[in-house]
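Appendix B, Record 12. Input sequence as logged:
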Amino acid sequence: MMSNKLEQLKSMSVVVADTGEFNAIKTYQPEDATTNPSLLYKVAQNSEYTDFILEAIEWAKQQPGDETIRLHHTLQKFAVNIGTEILKVIPGRVSTEVDARLSFHTEETIRQAQQLITLYQQAGIDKERVLIKIASTWEGICAAEQLEKQGIHCNLTLLFNFTQALACAEAGATLISPFVGRILDWHKNHTGRDHYAPMDDPGVLSVTQIYQYYKQYGYDTIVMGASFRNTGEIEQLAGCDRLTISPQLMQELQQDKGKLERKLCSSGGGSIPRHAPVTESLFRWELNQDAMATEKLAEGIRNFAVDQNKLETLILGMDEYHASQHKAVL
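Logged structural output:
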């Protein structure tokens, strides 16, 4: 009897859960898991995870600094609390993202990444089990290059074009997360086409090009397709190093008993011309020339920042509520 497509996919690619919800991770048994500000905000709204926030609030109150610094500590500790719990139910790594509002500040990104790793280590988690997610801006890539030299592994996210991918590989990033679905979204909005077959999906074609180039020229950086809109996109990238998939799409793959064919192979060879080394000026110019990548990178950073602000507001409200409850009891 043929196994379902999720199990078949696991034999070709490392499957990563794109969620912060423990129950979904337990159900589909992925190797790794990824989180981001939007996913953490979603988790924070679920009463099942309230204790993880309250613990972070109380921990932050014991740290030096004013209210702004305490809120910053709370957010970091909450992210690490969720990541630590996730690591109890997966054998691999968890990705935890730095504040998107630092996407254009190299030194502050490095500082926050180091703080996150310290918190994980204090929780008994080896840094080898953590990937620090950073937006694929020039400043973010420069931060990742320095962090990798310190032994802190990085996941470069919000990646939409080849130049970003090449810059990440040249910087020695452990992993990149090229966004498939958001590329598709942009093309649907700007071409008037409301449908793309999976093999013609512009997001799939982008990841395929990056994967083939990395393998052809011997880059060690892991390619992890992300941001999928449908299972057809996932199936077209079967064989990619890693694929991070939402619980809904994992469920659809699990329910499908059809045959899944490998589409990408690391030993497939290739004939892609060698690209010039990516300097800052070349990076900025080629990103500027790519309207889709420019717009989606900016939009992604803005949206993560919005959800970071929402998470801060939720945490502040929760802190005030529990403080008032405590006073009432006294």
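The first helix runs from residue 5 to 10.
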